[in-house]
Write the structure tokens for this entry.
Amino acid sequence: MQRIFRLMFARRGLKRAVSALLCGALALMMAGVRHTGRVSAGLPIAATPSGNIVNWRGPVTYTIDQGPLGSLSNAEAVALVNELFGVWKHVPTVSLDLQQNGQLSQDVTAANYLSLYRNRSDQNHPIIFDTDGSIIDAIYGSGAHTSILGFGVPSWTTSSLDSSIDGAISDADAVLNGAFIGGRPADTPQLSIEQFKATFVHEFGHFLGVGHSQLNIGTAFDRNFSNDQIVPLMFPFSLNNQTPVLTQDDKAQITRMYPSAAAASTTGNIRGRILLPDGVTPFQGANVIARRIDDPLVVAVSSVSGYRYRGTGSSANFGSTDSSLQGLFEINSLPPGNYTVEVEPIYQEFIGGSGVGPLDPPIDLPGPAEYYSGAAESASDGPATAAILSVSAGQTLDNINIILNSSNSIPQISETASHSGIGTAQAVSLPRIITGSVSSADPGEARGGAFTGVPAQVQDFFSFTATAGDWVTLDLNWPNPAVNLDLYLYDGSGTRLASSYTCSYGITCGGSFNPTREQIGPFQVSATGTYFIGVSSRTSTVTNYTLEASYQRVSIQNNSTQVTTVSAANYQAQAPPESIVAAFGTQLAPNLAVAASVPLPTSLGGVTVTVNGNPAGLFFVSPNQVNYQIPAGTAAGTANVVVTTSSGVVSRGTITVSGVAPSLFTANSDGQGAPAALVLRVRSNGQQIYEPVAKFDSATNKFVPATITRAAGDQLFLVLFGTGLRNAPNADNNSDNGVAESVQVTFGGTSAPVLYAAAAPGYVGLDQVNVQIPNGVSGSSVTVIMKVNNGQGTLVQANPVTVALQ
């Protein structure tokens, strides 16, 4: 027996002002009958009754629309699609035969889309450009184009007789709504091209069969917009500041489905089961995360317990009834290192097309979020008993079973009579279960939300202390589905850090969806001190509630030292991808070690450096300084830097990554004075002579400018060496002078011709600038200033250097 399944996802916004519906709608076709429902998601998009994951079993082709996409021409839109599919294809641990199969026979519009959309017989696997949102309106109804960015739609075959086709994706469609990028700006929120790209990396993930992941949920729902990059692109809700860069979790999910030959030998895996407090009964639908202790927010991969087991509600048609799969989690593609494994509940509003895991709706854990505790694992192990698991390349750690703690082991207290503001908050210690009641008529303080339907008043406040690095989880439950309660977390000054609202952000309550739970976290606090919890109600009905406030702590995370990374040339805390940087700290390496080969090693003297979880090439390491190269492709913004020694000493810091940040090396290695450069003298007869630019002055114990003398008929060229400029725009991609068009150099204010500016041939991370020294400029200390166009109309200046001209 064979069945064909089809899923459609659109992605829903939550955290930001652009709350576009991105993963909300879902349609399912089974044996020719159309239904509405949702799917088991989290890792692959679904599993079959035989337990097979759903994926493509051969080449993946797609055929692209002929029309424009919003403000993009067809050529630009085609390039965008190929770029975004390439994000998935080029993961190093993935083997995916993915390619464009030409273009569709016509420009798809609202008038003709039905001939191509969901047409399984043509095998086009179309990518449709809805240039102004009219196709979205035709599918979902008038006005839908203002809230639905698009979707990726796979369909697959199930067969109880032929395992080779059981779960094989047989067709897929995607629709991109150009109304959000200039197709209909008058009535549709406009996105940056990076936001639009991030959305469709997500949707093309669905096209390939990748489901949703819940990872760093505390970060996703906080009020810090700068940290969105550590939330997976396959997170169910869109975050406006995400860019089209895969996290380690995204890479792991696609690798599970399409592993390359190198995947098994270069990464490790962790398997186990989640069990109820009796230690025997499997628990389905818990989120399980492995975090590498040297970089826990970036190098992290998730799974869902029982993700291949039969689901509930509208997911009841998916998954297997094989008891060996119940409660089973499988975390794959972990870079080697030391890890903790934790378990947490799945957020209650991850439902329908935004689902994570096989349960619809998800269910709460019987107790708090917790860690795997190794030999101490039990139904009552404490929140700070995390076991450290060492994962090697090619290794699978099995039977990592977590016995869930019971709430019965957590002390209970009742709320006090007056705690209606930050100043009168009731002090509690964690973990605690707090019982209380709340009504909108109670006294309160204006610390609520500013969203439609969310009251400004918060009625109940509680305070607690936490240690930097703690993961705090707040779980609010109430019995009355007709009442909506909201939950807040504040820092010691009363600034709101995170919040959780029911029936907001365009989510409609009613019918079968009447939530009685709100969740914040696990949320990692950044500083030791006092924090506040707020509980509020939207109705005057007095409602009883229980608030479970708990924490998780890994002591080793709090023992790391600080490391400061700057440009190796001018010591500014900004550097582009592929540039040379220097990290300063203590205990960075046991001894001095210098790289002796190219490409640069990523482990030197037992020391490794990662930038946003990606290994960096190392020039040299020493106890107080490590020089390395920012990995190619590192996203712009604040990047996390982690230096780890073989003995487990961890140092953490950040570096601001930008496209262009030029800096020049100097003779004294301090970013000032004479440059580390050469003068090329070309005589009238063609003879070429290289001369020094700096000389050592024993009186000052420093290098000073060496006098460059002029001679009749000679031409003088200054050859500068630096880093951070190679990513400047190149006006002529076919030219052999690199990005020289974007570089300006002056000698004492006089402009000089720039003949070459690009990577220095034969050197890693080093950039070279050849500039002709202008006539008529002289002096014992002539200031040389270099400025580089960053591609956004701004000239970025490098550190000034000085030369002596005569």
Summary: DSSP finds six helices and 57 strands in the chain. The first strand starts at residue 2 and ends at 6.
